[in-house]
Every structure is written in C-alpha cells, then in structure tokens.
Design goal:
Elements: E1 6-12, H1 20-30, E2 37-43, H2 45-48, H3 55-71, E3 80-83, H4 89-98, H5 103-107, H6 110-118, H7 125-139, E4 145-146, H8 153-170, E5 178-179, H9 215-223, H10 240-253, H11 257-263, H12 269-296, H13 298-327
Parallel strand pairs: 1-2, 2-3, 4-5
Helix pairs in contact: 3-12, 4-7, 4-13, 7-8, 9-12, 10-12
Amino acid sequence: MINDKKVLFSGMQATGNLTLGNYLGALKNWLTLSDEYECFYSVVDMHSITVRQDPATLRKRARALLTLYIAAGLDPRKNCIYYQSHVSGHAELSWILSCFTYMGELNRMTQFKDKAAKHADNINAGLFTYPVLMAADILLYQADVVPVGIDQMQHLELTRDIAIRFNNVYGDVFTIPEAYVGKVGAKIMSLQDPVKKMSKSDENPNGSIYLMDDPDTIMRKCKRAVTDSESCVAYRDEQPGLKNLINIYCACTEKTPDEAVKEFEGRGYGELKAAVGESVVSILKPLQDEVKRLEKDKAYIDSIIKENAQKAGYYAAKTLRKVQRKVGFPDRIR
C-alpha cells in the first residue's frame, strides 16, 4: 500500500498497433482508477521480445504506446507510466521467482501452447517462462489488484501461487494480488470474424480498427463489417456481427443496447454501420489530435520517461532488496 492507497498494476505490450478493442476494453477504464489506486502502468517491452522484433520498430512502438497512454488521459504525475525495460528489478525478481516455479505449472499455461503453435520456428525459453516475468511485474510493486481478462486469469493464478509459496517459506514478503473487479470494459470483437476478439495481431487488417486509423479508413472498415442475411437490427447472440457493431456503438455513445436497437428500428444495416463508423471517429479524433501534439513535445515525453522510470525503480528496489535478503544474497555495500 502506497500513500494509503491500494496498488494496481497493468501493462500492454509494445507490439503491433493498439485497436479500438484495447481502448474500449482496457485503456479507457484505466482513467477512472487513479483516484482510488496507486497505479503503475507499464509498457511491457521485455515481454515483446519473446517473438523476434525489429529493434528500431520496437523502440518506436514503445514510445508511441507510452505517448498513447498519456494522450488517452492518464496523468503521468498521478500514475507511474514507464518502460518495463528501464527497471532492472523486473528481470532480477523474475530469476528469483523462477526458482520457486515448477515446470509442471509452466507446462499447463495455455498461452504458451498457443504461441508455440504460432511461432514453431522460435519456441524459446523466454516464451516458456513468460508467466514468471509477468508474476515479477505484479509482485515487484506489491500490487493489490490487477485488471485481467479471461485470457490472462491463468497467469494471475500462477502469480498468486508463486507469492503464497514464497511467503510460506520466508514470511510475509509479497502482497497476494487479486483480480480487479470493477467496471467491465466493452468486449470488442473482430469486424471480419465476430466470434474472435479484435486483435492487433489479426492477419486481416479489416478486422480491427486501429487507434490511429484516419476517418476514411474507419468508415470503410465499419461498412465492410460482417453481419448476416437478416434485415432487422437486433441484439442477440445468434447475430454476432450485428451484436458487435451495437456494442461498439454503445461503448462510443454511452447508450444501452436496447436504446440502440430502438434507434435503428426499421432501418437497414447500412445506416447502422455508418453510425458506428461516425461514433468511432468522434471518440478517436481527440485522442489522435493529442497524440500528434505530444509527439511534437519530445522534451516533455523524455522527462516523463526519466521521472517515472526513477519512481518505478524506487518502489521496485524496496521489494527487491527485501527478497534478496530473504533468499540469502549478500548485502550490497553502498
């Protein structure tokens, strides 16, 4: 606990381009948390290299993601917004925790199996031990809560198991994190395959709306969105493409699905798709404008990177020193 507030940790990978799903499902909801929690929001660039990256592109995307956090409204003075790779404690704690993690636990991680299947030519140890680094990310800041989707719940459970195992040996060292249960962000699906989540790694670029897409591109993608052969606008599981469009519209306009269905009663899918596109453009334009403004202010972004790396490093070092002493590492002469 910091300043009498519980601690919250979350982060996003510096790969690909963030989608509307990332924004409506996670980033937008982060904005409401800083009053209640001491928030650490990381650009998790260390996780990114489990898959081969072009170095220049990774650096560019990491900076773009950090800038996007701020442009979306996260105050870097109230929230610690930093690069994971700038705090060496993530890697140091990960090694120690790997010695308290069992092979069988890592073998059961479904994301490893999924990623190994996608990257059969690069099944590296980092891909296998990825959940241990994720545990270190969380435990390093003594996080009380972690916002996670269903696909990450298995990793949080492993983090809890590792922390409990360590505490059983060495006493009350780590806070045992809980899943954050708050306002649920909109679950946005692919425009081309509405049974799958909208993803920044989607091979079909028409399936995802990226946060920096221009208005014409957004409108075109919405108009090409998969629906069905029925003609009436309804909100039901049997029409996943239509349901997804209504979810996007409601998330952008703060209307309920019932209100949206009533609004488009007797109107065709084409009118709904156009309205969805316009609503997306309206919420993304201020974000895009702010990104462009911040990108011009290099000195400001550089100062945030430096200051927040120092802040994250300070809290990380407190935990790391305690852990190192517990496991028997010699004290450092300062």
